[in-house]
Amino acid sequence: MVRSPASSSGRNVDFFCAVVIVGLLAGVAGLSTTFVLRFIQHLTYNYSFGALLAGVTGSSPVRRVLGPMVGAALAGLGWWLLRRRAEVPPLAGTIAAHGPIPRLAWSVDAMRQVLLVGSGASLGREGAPRQFAAALGDFGTGWLRRLDSRDREILLACAAGAGLGAVYAVPLAGALFSARIMLNTWHPRALGAAFLTSSLAVAIGSASTGDHANLDWPIGESTYLLTAHGLLVAPFALAVGLAFNRLMAAARPAREPRGWMLIPALAGAGLVMGICSHWRPELPGNGRSILTVSLASGLTLAAAAAILLLKPLLTALFLRAGGAGGLLTPSLATGAATGALLVLTINWMAGTDLHVPAVSLAGAAGVLAVTQGSPIWAAIFVWELARPPLWLFLVFLMTSTGAHGLNRLLSVRVLKRDERVG
């Protein structure tokens, strides 16, 4: 069917209006989930100001254990009530299949995720704003009748990426998440929509983020020799990223838990988190505390090793118990611990003084490239989180592309071996 010029023009006008609406609503979604998350964190650990790490460190031993347990139990109760009555289909699959958007179910599920992560669960906070932004975006653009199914797919993917961009103040990474990870395209129409929606969402979200980087980059010397160390980190990032993916795949239940056992299972996971936080207060939450400490060079060899082991295990525990949430920031924090462990080991054994924050973030970029399958996006996301000197982007890119390239080579070798065996 050939569209008339008037029809195409009207469709383009509707699409532009929809892009603006989606960007604004994604910003509202990011802002609202951030406010709710902070409220729950402050309530769980009984503090008024500062980051989650300060709240966990300053809370009483009893509250540090009971807070995550009670919050997780309440989230389990909410999911039990929700899943008995409604389906909560996966975001990416629903968008790609052009299926009906469960606006209410996604919105309610998003708030359950915020409750769980806010009370200390080792899951990412990015899943909630992506779902909520997609639900709001679908609601806000439903009256535009001249949009076709591909337009709506682009808009929903842009809403998800813009929601991610809004909560982490990463406009470029939010746009590329929509185009490259959600849509897997470089089409100008999709790219333009993604950049506009993400920029608008981050502008709205700046009411919470303060229009500055999500992480504080330390003032200190770093040298261009770090570029070579970016490749050194790559094989370690590959190994950790593959292990992280396999652990999460094994932990995720084959069928979404719906029974009342959700409540004690998640409460038990919260109890384990509370106990672990007595020794390592960086563990509760999505992983930002780990990134903060690693950038401040506050990790010892033993602490980095403990976090590298415990963070993915706790994330898998919450998944196995039936919780829902993102895996982006837990994998990012695991990668940061990998980089910190490697550079601290080198500094200790060789007597060098390599820059711990730079190598730590390089490890984060490498693991993220393996878990998300997009090395350029991983490097951009990590750089935007802390906004270090621009040349350090090259270090992150070297690690992410190195880890991704090694992963591709390994996949080809495994495929050839299976073909020979078959």
From TrEMBL:
Membrane-related topology note: Multi-pass membrane protein
Keywords, sorted A to Z: Chloride, Chloride channel, Ion channel, Ion transport, Membrane, Transmembrane, Transmembrane helix, Transport
Gene Ontology cellular component annotations, sorted alphabetically: chloride channel complex
Membrane-spanning residues: 12-40, 154-178, 190-210, 222-244, 259-277, 289-310, 330-349, 361-383, 389-410
Keyword Transmembrane helix: yes
Gene3D superfamilies assigned to the protein according to its UniProt record, in alphabetical order: Clc chloride channel
InterPro entries, per database record: Cl-channel_core, ClC, ClC-type_chloride_channel
GO MF, one annotated term: chloride channel activity
Compartments where located: Membrane
Record's protein name: Chloride ion channel protein
Species of provenance: Mycobacterium sherrisii
